[in-house]
Amino acid sequence: MRLLTIGVAVVASATATFLAIAQQNPNTLPARPASMLRPDAKLMPIDWAEVREAVKNQRLQRAANLKMAIAANAPRPSLPLLLPIEQRIAAAKVNVFPKPDAYAASMRMDDITIEIHGERRAIVLAKEDPLARISRPKLRMNIAGATVPLAIDKTEGGFDVTFSRFGGAYLVAIECKNPETDERCTKPDFIKALVERMALAGSEQP
User: Fold this and answer.
1) 174: Cα separation from own chain's centroid
2) Pick from 159, 157, 151, 150: which is nearest to 187 by CA?
3) Per residue in 155-193, pLDDT tens?
4) Cross-strand pairs, 131
5) Which of 46, 91, 98, 188 is the most exposed place for a label (fewest CB within 10 A)?
6) Does the reported pTM lie above 0.90?
């Protein structure tokens, strides 16, 4: 799995703008308190009541058919484990690497790698902060049962999408074997479709 950073992604929620803590793949780091990563980091509160309500009202689907590979002694992350559901992904193995306050997942589909990162640790930005003003996402899409702001960024290998849902920060990344010719990595349509199909792969309880 390639290493990703979430830290430069500014994610706007309904109540605040926050910066997800910069870190590499959670599977490569020892578990450490948020205060050891950044002195101004905090654990964002997760709205588990909204998770349960979205599942009950079928606004949030369950990723029941995914073949997930998770270590038997792995901790359960303290935020909703969201993964995209797509017919070709359902046939592939999804490697999930949980940490107490974060998770990473990776899967291969044809000549494309898909990675998902979820994170609770964040830095809340004041409204007058220049980074909050210039980086606030302008695009909105329906993700996991609600219309939320998101940011789409072109990368060397494909695209990254960052958004906030249920109080957590999420990043979905795709990387193509042939990023200059594969339309899934030259146009944002494919990753937008993935993000629209985010489903609950874990518990609806804390």
Assistant:
1) 12
2) 159
3) 999 999 999 999 999 999 999 999 999 999 999 999 999
4) none
5) 91
6) no
